[in-house]
Amino acid sequence: MSSPFSQEDGPQPPKVLKTPLEIVANLRQLQQNHDPLIITFEERNQRFQSYVIAVDRDKNLLILDELMPNDGERYLANGETFNVEAFHEGVRVAWKCEQNVRITEHDGARCYFSSIPPEVIYHQRRSAFRAPLKQGELIKIELAGDKLRTAIVGQLLDISATGCKLRFPGNISTNLQAGQVYERFTARFPFGPMTTAIEVRHVQYEDKLDITFIGARFHRINGQEQRLVERFVYQLQREARRFDSDGLF
User: Fold this and answer.
1) Distances from the Cα of 70 to the Cαs of 49, 52, 62, 225, in angstroms?
2) Using CB atoms within 10 A as the burial measure, which of 26, 95, 134, 245 is most buried?
């Protein structure tokens, strides 16, 4: 049986980005977030890792960090075609490099100069990266609004850029209604509180635990609050990467 808290927005079909503005924006996002690149050469099984160091649209220049392991550099020197793949918050960004790459140095470090790819595959495989919180680090939240007599205090279980899952002690399923918007949801992030409206999507009371679980979506969140949410999601994602390496090599 599927969970009522699973993502409702399913995977989207991949898009092929062809405009320089879109391509550069996505490459710069990989650079700014220091997302690892997975590089594979055609007809070779080994995978290598790199990073985007710089993107210069005016010079049509993309600078990649030294390959890890660095023995893959000999394939670059041979002019072999390679594929690049990266993931950013549930989005797959990929392209192919068929032109020769110049092996050089940038700011004293080994790197590779190539042209900005003429097209990039952009595949939103889920609606948003959903970051779970560790049991000992759950965030205190408070829910209030015109439809509630008093504020309800609970905990944040997980969060994405678009919504969150909450838990409250006791049975409050009769107090909350699916589809209802509650104007004041406050999450006390480590770097400061964030308050926005949420729309409750699911309410589920577990009598054995005496806990009510809530699935919610942020409602008309403004730019400042959205940035706070994304900052916290990124912080959780970065910590998860640190402790859950996928063993690339």
Assistant:
1) 9, 16, 19, 42
2) 95
Q: In what order do the strands lie in the sheet with 47-50?
A: 15-17, 120-124, 91-97, 82-88, 37-41, 47-50
Beta bridge partners of 159: 131, 164
Q: What are phi and psi of 74, to 5 degrees?
A: -65, -30
Query: Cβ distance 60 to 115 under 8 Å?
Result: yes
- What the block records as the tokens of 212 is 């009510």
CA distance 118 to 236: 33
Tokens matching residue 123: 């595949």
pLDDT tens digits, one per residue of 10-36: 556 788 999 998 899 999 988 887 888
Q: Which region holds residue 140: left if phi is over 0, alpha if psi is between -120 and 50, else beta?
A: beta
Rounded CA gap, 200 and 238, in Å? 28
Please say whether the beta carbons of 161 and 171 come within 8 A. no
Distance from C-alpha of 125 to C-alpha of 144, rounded to nearest angstrom: 33
Cα separation of 63 and 61, whole Å?
6
Rounded to whole angstroms, the Cα distance separating 88 from 169 reads 35
Least Cα distance to 155 among 181, 171, 133, 176 occurs for: 133
For 141-172, the pLDDT digits (tens) are: 999 999 898 999 999 988 888 899 999 999 99
Cα separations (Å) of 185 from 166, 225, 228, 235?
Answer: 11, 11, 14, 20
SS3 161: coil
